[in-house]
Design a protein that fits this description.
single chain, 502 residues, mainly alpha, two-stranded antiparallel sheet, two-stranded antiparallel ribbon, globular
Length: 502
């Protein structure tokens, strides 16, 4: 097949996809230029050059009617990857691509990364003979799709911008509240960096970097939204059981139980982010309105609290600044008990929590496995933490097993600390507080040990260039740091109360 006929075949694929997207809008009555109907395109012709020029002009017109949101909805799990590859070629080869072209390219690349032809196709495996990580398989595939010749290496500034995206990805993993996530402006910052990349955005290395980032941040967005929706619906049910009908207020208007029952999470998540942003913000306003009511206050104390935390510390958070990684958490103000019975009991509780979370994560649907319902709060997991609980290699003597075991341990400590902090707050003025204080002391010691072990894994990940492993572990350690600070504060309050009573 000649080059022009090959190019025409690509554009014909894009054309067919566009017509399908516009079919409902135009009720099948879209006037197609002479020679561009499916029957004409299927017939071999010596007029490929003329047909190609006509198709290019026609697609430029259709581009105005096909929004990125339509492309997003059109790329389903059943879509043939060859279609997404044709879209990539079409957008990337434009002489003057628009912002919408960049968004559509972003969607097509992310679709290909999310839907490999063979499961696990994009995973990195092994090292080159010189000890350097080989080019990721997904980047190689993109180079084959997009590059007509030799791929030009990225400049230092472009690599720095990718490092900035890495930092934002690490920050996204820290959030445990949907409202804080939206208010942080993180999604706008990601879009701005993509815009600043300009024509380099279409480079195989950039798209190979951006696609997994989109997947990770999108998954975090979905998880936090579902957690907020779960809390809202749970509260609405309790209001209805008490005979009420008003759940809360948003912008001065009452929100009823019936309105909450009609809220469709799948429809919201399936819509375009830009057009649905205000609807997402109403969800966060409703949750804040509910949290001001007594029934919700206790659940909000240690559940999905608003955390717009600082940059993840360590390699993932200091790509630009090269600041040193902190060593370990400071020792708790009150030393842990040396009673072996209490130490054994707490270890048993930690193991039990690990197993309970593992059982839930493995049984839950993929969309809900990162929201673990605890007694008085929802435990929000990162994608890497959920994967660690599902891993079948935890007993291996390997780096990946060490990394997964640390994630599992950190999550268990965070969950136990959250529970014990809540119990301390409830019982701090009674004699029943002391056992919980003992548990918190032991958990602070366990957190210190976990940080020390994690530092070894982080150093090894740094040496091997496994930036992904560094990011995921630092995100979990950030949660552990925050929870440890709350635990130390609770212990200080307990000590002060004890002195007053004496």
């Amino acid at each position: 097949m000649g080059e022009e006929k090959w190019e025409l075949a690509i554009l014909a694929t894009v054309h067919g996809f566009y017509l399908k997207l516009l079919e409902e809008q135009f009720a099948g009555q879209l006037p197609i230029p002479l020679g561009l109907d499916s029957d004409s395109l299927s017939i071999a012709s010596d007029k490929a050059h003329h047909t190609l020029e006509t198709m290019q002009r026609w697609l430029q017109l259709l581009d105005l009617a096909v929004s990125p949101a339509m492309v997003r909805c059109g790329l389903t799990a059943e879509t043939d990857p060859e279609l997404a590859e044709a879209l990539l070629r079409y957008y990337a080869r434009k002489k003057d691509p628009s912002n919408q072209d960049r968004d559509r390219t972003d969607l097509a690349a992310t679709f290909l990364y999310r839907n490999p032809r063979v499961p696990g196709q994009w995973e990195r495996r092994g090292y080159a003979l010189d000890g350097i990580l080989p080019i990721p398989p997904f980047e190689i595939a993109l180079a084959e799709i997009l590059a007509d010749g030799k791929v030009v290496p990225l400049s230092g500034d472009e690599m720095h911008q990718l490092a900035d995206l890495d930092i934002l990805r690490a920050k996204a993993e820290i959030f445990r509240d949907f409202g804080a996530f939206l208010d942080s402006g993180l999604l706008d910052k990601v879009r701005e960096i993509k815009r600043l990349l300009g024509p380099s955005f279409y480079h195989p290395a950039v798209l190979g970097y951006v696609a997994p980032l989109n997947l990770a941040i999108g998954k975090k967005f979905d998880t936090l939204f579902r957690a907020a929706s779960f809390e809202i619906k749970k509260f609405a049910q309790s209001v209805e059981q008490r005979g009420g009908s008003i759940v809360g207020q948003v912008d001065g208007r009452d929100v009823t139980v019936d309105l909450i029952a009609a809220m469709d999470e799948e429809e919201l998540l399936g819509s375009d982010y830009g057009t649905s942003l205000e609807r997402f913000r109403r969800v966060t306003k409703l949750k804040k309105s509910m949290e001001g009511q007594p029934k919700m206050q206790m659940a909000a104390v240690v559940g999905v609290s608003a955390v717009a935390g600082p940059l993840v510390q360590g390699k993932a958070g200091d790509v630009a600044g090269k600041s040193p990684r902190p060593n370990v958490l400071p020792k708790p103000a009150v030393p842990p008990t040396s009673d072996p019975r209490l130490i054994t009991l707490e270890e048993t509780k930690l193991r039990s929590v690990e197993e309970s979370i593992r059982a839930f994560v493995r049984a839950a649907t993929p969309k809900l496995r990162e929201i673990v319902p605890m007694t008085s709060f929802n435990l929000i997991l990162t994608a890497a933490e959920a994967d660690a609980f599902c891993a079948d290699f935890l007993e291996e003597d390997s780096f990946r097993a060490d990394h997964a075991r640390i994630l599992v341990r950190v999550v268990a400590i965070v969950a136990r600390m959250s529970t014990e902090i809540e119990e301390l707050k409830r019982k701090h003025l009674t004699h029943l507080a002391q056992p919980h204080g003992d548990s918190v002391r032991l958990l602070l010691a366990a957190a210190r040990t976990a940080r020390e072990n994690a530092a070894l894994v982080l150093d090894l990940a740094d040496q091997r260039g496994l930036n992904e492993k560094v990011i995921t572990l630092e995100a979990s350690l950030q949660k552990l740091r925050e929870r440890s600070e709350l635990a130390e504060k609770a212990m200080a309050e307990l000590t002060a109360d004890t002195k007053k009573q004496n």
